């Protein structure tokens, strides 16, 4: 079996996006879809809106994004599509029925793996950080898929510890497919590029990426493997050090990533994972012991937010004597955390990962001068908040106007005066302190809004979901039916509805009790859901009645579908007080008359057909056509 083919029976049981996420996925496939269209869809989901607003503000380093349209524009349509997909899957599958599947550990690893992949993508310029974030978040969705589709079989398989290699072999032997193939097939179906599919298939293998010849794909595969190893290590009890992970050190050495950058990446990933766990309401493995996990380099005191006057400073100076002098003043005697560069181009590369709060730069330098460096910073979202102090021998009015027009915050004339530099840094610290205070307050408000939106969404979902069966209730079904009728009339396509009643359900309650009756209702609801198409809506109509809304099929096709539902339920076996038995259903089918039939008339005809099926001996299908009812 290849990674691109999944059996239809298995496919219906696998995790899939719902609601707004599906609408965004479908809209994104059209070339005519714009930011306004995506923003309008996002606005229909308060929880998704809150999450995207928070991410947009984080990406802008507190950039004041306040509207959904701004957030979508800032993140980009592809990122919004991928994030909506990831959030939708997380919402639905934070727990499940597979006893030995470690749901908490799975989402802890997946979330940390996603944030680690984002950090690696930024550090070595792998591509879209948001797309790689979602790819890593869903890279192991195949494991969740097997736990969802085969809860009992997969639980038995996981009852004993297995290595990655043995787990794949056992899955293949027991279930005929392994989790990597499922992950790749789902990601491909959801629109992820082929550039990411192979890395997902190889992310567990320590050397699998070496066989990749496509440009850029091998590096992505290696980074995904590093993120996977780090996430596994972080979720292993007793782990206190991630920085010395062998895979990470080899990756960093091959790409010349400094150790302080690695530490910053790990800290960011751990902190962001804990933050997002709260927003997504995931019960996360405790990562607090891994924070501040590395020993600072000798002579360097790292920045502590708002607790002192320490700062992260980048010195950009081509004169080695002046550069050494500044390093001595700022690092040894004052205790700032700093890095240095010999020109503007080198400074830009360092700043992207070091994220300095202040840049002290010379004006006249080779390759890229200080003025061009400042202009480049101000053109990027992450560089707009950096405080730039310009060193210059020129103090003419025209020069100063030119410097401030380029985005410089302050200047200092040469030759340098240590007291003057200290005074300028105090002013810079006040700016940094006020900005970070505002960012924390803004982040707190955004998080509160997101959490409130998520709670509202859960209340809304609860009001539209039948608590017993877990499928939509009558209220939700009525709303879907109105929309389906409107769409059918607008586009001139058929619409069928199927009314369903469990046969002899009263006898089940009388003989076995209402607890067993509730179990039967839950089983029938889930069975109908599994047998339905993706575009069908299955809901509990009330009591022992169910209702299915099936768009784009004719009456004859609806009758065939109803017969399929009947057989599917009849073939299921139930254990009622140690007695194995089966339950049957009766079904009535009606089709929308595009010229005259109303919603009420459609429901009446479906009920009439259902009653005919019950009068005809039950476990039957009947259809209503042209005012007449006939048994199938």
Notes on the structure:
The chain is an alpha/beta fold. Among the domains are: about 15-90 and about 425-455, no CATH class; about 310-415, Rossmann fold, CATH 3.40.50; about 475-630, Reverse transcriptase/Diguanylate cyclase domain (Alpha-Beta Plaits). Helices cover about 55% and strands about 10% of the residues. The chain contains 26 helices and 13 strands. It has helices spanning about 10, 20-30, 35-40, 45-60, 70-75, 75-90, 105-125, 130-135, 140-150, 150-155, 165-175, 180-190, 195-200, 215-235, 245-255, 260-280, 320-335, 345-355, 370-380, 395-405, 420-465, 475-490, 505-510, 515-530, 555-570, 600-615, and strands spanning about 310-315, 335-340, 360, 385-390, 410-415, 495-500, 535-540, 545-550, 575, 580, 585-590, 620-625, 630. Strands 7-8-6-11-12-13 form a six-stranded mixed beta sheet, with helices on both faces. Strands 2-1-3-4-5 form a five-stranded parallel beta sheet, with helices on both faces. A two-stranded antiparallel ribbon has the order 9-10. Helix 4 (about 45-60) packs antiparallel against helix 21 (about 420-465) and helix 18 runs parallel beside helix 19.
